[in-house]
Amino acid sequence: MHHRKRGILSRLPNNWEIYYIEPFRLGTKWSWYEDKNVKVRSIFCYKKGLDKLFNFVLVRRFVAAANALFIKFFVVRSLGGPADVAIVSNYGIFHPRVFGKFAHKLVVDINDIPAGFGVPDWVENNFNQTVKAADKVIVSSKEWQRYRQDAVFIGNGVDFEAFNIHRRNL
Fold this sequence. Notes:
Layout: H1 3-9, E1 18-23, E2 32-35, E3 38-43, H2 51-54, H3 57-79, E4 83-88, E5 103-110, H4 121-133, E6 136-139, E7 152-153, H5 160-168
Parallel strand pairs: 1-3, 1-4, 4-5, 5-6, 6-7
Antiparallel strand pairs: 2-3
């Protein structure tokens, strides 16, 4: 697990069963492991570069339906049922209620804003729906608290002042 994930997970009770859901990325290892009380699983979701394919509503609906079946029959069964909390840092291409199959509570970690990457409107709409439906939202930038006023700020662990000092001295 990366540093940000560990920082977020360390703030949750050790006796909770936690699922950390991450997007499947081509060319990387499929995440399917456990670390203490945290079970990490990869799921399929929209990735930049496949815009032409995903701009078709029927393609999105097909992938969303396939994802829901994958989650229900492979992911949740492998996990033994819903957990106390599911944490996602990717908004996916399916409706936020699908996350309810994972756990009783949903935490969304906003470490990137989809609009910053020039994504289609429907991606940003899904992002906004997911953030709205979440039980708790964590942001890596204080300015992103505009998405949820009650969002918890946990920085990315970068010392921006030190970075800027070095950058100015180049």
